[in-house]
């Protein structure tokens, strides 16, 4: 499984997730998946889908993905196809408005925590992308951030705002990080869990009632870019999406100004 994940260019976290789910399945039945009948697998998945401890059905979905991957790896495509299909999540992302963002960024006591939350929003970064940033990936003079080998094994360059440059200079002068832009407690790499904790603690100090998390900052970034008039193809590239369809969901959230219907001849001859 590790070899196949590497060959397909998938992340180590994907491998760990698949292996963990298949291991739980094997421990439950004390048999390998290919030795279990289709009826037994379905009963197990039904129980998992109804588990009140997992209201988002994440355990169920990850188990299906893991088993599907396992069966295909063994060349047992019929078994993979027989697994239940998963409908896409139709929930719209929750967005923080600009006033809420200002309140959030002012909440943390530590400069480092204020900077890291602001940077995630200002560049639309994923949590994993933030912790993987090295000092050399941030060019304060050119005002760019180089995100290396992120999801889908793609590099991309995103702009760094003037305000963020000022904040980062203060942070670098005060903290003196080495290798990584944001070091953990032991001087090594920060963790996504640590970032999520910073977000939760900051939210506690605000009046924000929305159910948001760290990734909501990236959702807010994409939505606000569309509201500011940036075209969706550019937003797709800035987010590092592989498909435009993934980016399209933000069109359902963005409050964009609607143009008054008019005749194209009026604009063609300058009479509008």
Automatic annotation (TrEMBL):
Keywords: DNA integration, DNA recombination, DNA-binding. GO terms for biological process: DNA integration; DNA recombination. InterPro entries: DNA_brk_join_enz, Integrase-like_cat_sf, Integrase_catalytic, Integrase_recombinase_N, Integrase_SAM-like_N, Tyrosine_recombinase_XerCD. The lineage of its organism: Bacteria, Pseudomonadati, Bacteroidota, Cytophagia, Cytophagales. It comes from the Bacteria. The keyword DNA damage does not apply. Belongs to the 'phage' integrase family. The keyword DNA-binding applies. GO terms for molecular function: DNA binding. Residues 91-263 form the Tyr recombinase domain. Pfam families: Phage_int_SAM_4, Phage_integrase. This is Tyr recombinase domain-containing protein. It comes from Persicobacter diffluens.
């Amino acid at each position: 499984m590790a070899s196949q994940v590497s060959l397909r260019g998938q992340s180590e976290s994907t491998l760990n997730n698949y292996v963990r789910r298949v291991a739980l399945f094997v421990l439950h039945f004390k048999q390998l998946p290919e030795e279990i009948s289709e009826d037994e697998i379905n009963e197990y998945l039904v129980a998992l889908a109804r588990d009140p401890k997992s209201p988002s059905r994440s355990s169920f979905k990850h188990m299906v993905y893991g088993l599907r991957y396992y069966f295909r790896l063994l060349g047992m495509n019929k078994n993979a196809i027989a697994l239940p299909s998963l409908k896409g999540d139709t929930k719209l992302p929750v967005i923080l408005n600009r006033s809420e963002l200002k309140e959030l960024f002012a909440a943390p006591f530590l400069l480092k925590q204020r900077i890291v939350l602001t940077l995630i929003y200002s560049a639309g970064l994923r949590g994993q992308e933030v912790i993987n940033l090295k000092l050399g990936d941030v060019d304060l003079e050119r005002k760019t951030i180089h995100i290396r080998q992120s999801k889908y094994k793609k590099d991309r360059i995103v702009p760094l705002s003037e305000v963020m440059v000022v904040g980062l200079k203060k942070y670098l002068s005060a903290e003196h990080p080495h290798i990584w832009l944001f070091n953990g407690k032991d001087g090594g790499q920060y963790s996504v869990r640590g970032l999520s904790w910073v977000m939760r603690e900051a939210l506690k100090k605000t009046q924000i009632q929305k159910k948001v998390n760290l990734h909501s900052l990236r959702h807010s970034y994409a939505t606000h870019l569309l509201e500011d008039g940036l075209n969706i193809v550019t937003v797709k590239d800035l987010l590092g999406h592989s498909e435009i369809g993934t980016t399209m969901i933000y069109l359902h959230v963005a409050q964009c100004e609607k143009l008054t219907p008019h005749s194209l001849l009026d604009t063609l001859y300058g009479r509008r």
